[in-house]
Amino acid sequence: MDLRPDTTGDTTYTVQFKLSTEQMKNHCFLYELVCRMEGWAGVEILSVQCNGHRENT
User: Fold this and answer.
1) What distances in angstroms separate CA 11 from CA 5, 27, 43, 44, 53, one per listed residue?
2) What value, to the nearest 5°, has the Cα angle with vertex 18 and ends 25 and 13?
3) Beta bridge pairs of residue 13
4) Of the four listed, 6, 9, 14, 16, which is most buried by Cβ atoms within 10 Å?
């Protein structure tokens, strides 16, 4: 994970999702959501956290 200050002028936001039990049973849902968001211009996923387990990209 890159901890250097952001010199691009971009702003970092935190977004939280509350997923239903049904969505959590589908283990691919969160992965698919992140992959879809990564395709958005100007969006970079920095980390994903689920039930206290954190994945840094």
Assistant:
1) 11, 30, 11, 11, 24
2) 130
3) none
4) 6
